[in-house]
Design goal:
- The protein is an alpha/beta fold.
- Helix content is 45%, strand content 21%.
- The chain has 9 helices and 7 strands, in the order αααβαβαββαβαααββ.
- It has a 7-stranded mixed beta sheet with strand order 3-2-1-4-5-7-6, with helices on both faces.
- Helix 6 crosses helix 9 and helix 7 packs antiparallel against helix 8.
């Protein structure tokens, strides 16, 4: 039997297949693994994006589209995009009738959108799963209007050494056990721990964003740096 488990090679077809396999119980598993903190992180992301009526917003790596729905409730026109058809199907099942929300199957490294289409772009817990994240950051810049904004919410590195050690112990020892109870494919969540451990800390991700062309790059830690909100702006052309 083939395992629906990605690895740090992050082959797009393998990663999308893994998310297809866990889509049905994805939200329940997230709630269990984060003890409900995912809801607070989503609210913080929505506030950082600050959706306004009439704006067009891309929510990339939308998953089951709970983040997209939160943005659309602010009156913006939101495109929920993901490379997992299974995850999008769950989102459409729950939010398909929501006003201002549309859905698109999309590869972060080759977005199916025109230049400067969006007032804001956002990506939660997805950049880490992209095979070439710097390419994705450049693609997000391309589809953002000059003066537009980006918000990246991603697992990160707690700056406090003691808390960082506790967090890594939890990821290695506790998280897999919870995942095997709550998820439809517990083995897939071994990759989650590996990808978080391998992911760069806040300052390096900020440097990647500047390298891609974003300006006014800043970040804010949530829950002691378990996740971090990175914000930036596409410069206005002279």
């Amino acid at each position: 039997m083939t395992s629906n488990r990605a690895d740090l090679g992050k082959d797009p077809q393998t990663v999308s297949g893994m998310f297809d396999a866990v889509a049905a119980r994805y939200d329940l598993t997230n709630i269990a693994m984060t003890f409900g903190l995912d809801a607070a992180w989503r609210r913080a992301t929505t506030r950082a994006v600050d959706p306004k009526p009439g704006e067009r917003i891309l929510d990339l790596a939308a998953g089951t589209c709970r983040s997209s729905a939160a943005l659309a409730r602010g009156g913006a026109e939101v495109v929920a995009a993901d490379f997992s058809a299974g995850m999008l199907a769950q989102g459409q099942k729950r939010f398909g009738d929501m006003r201002g929300l549309s859905f698109a199957l999309a590869d972060a490294m080759d977005l199916p959108f025109g230049d400067a289409e969006f007032d804001a772009v956002t990506m939660s817990y997805g950049l880490r799963n992209v095979q070439q994240p710097k390419v994705a950051l450049a693609e997000l810049l391309r589809v953002t209007k000059p003066g537009g904004r980006v918000v990246i919410n991603e697992f990160s590195t707690p700056p406090n050494a003691a808390f960082r050690a506790l967090y890594r112990w939890y990821n290695a020892q506790v998280l897999p056990r919870i995942a095997r109870v709550a998820s439809s494919n517990g083995d897939a969540y071994d990759y989650l721990n590996e990808s978080i451990r391998d992911w760069p800390a806040q300052r390096e991700l900020a440097a990647w964003m500047r390298e891609a062309g974003w300006t006014a790059v800043a970040h804010r830690n949530l829950t002691g740096g378990i996740v971090a909100l990175h914000r930036a702006t596409r410069p206005v052309a002279a």
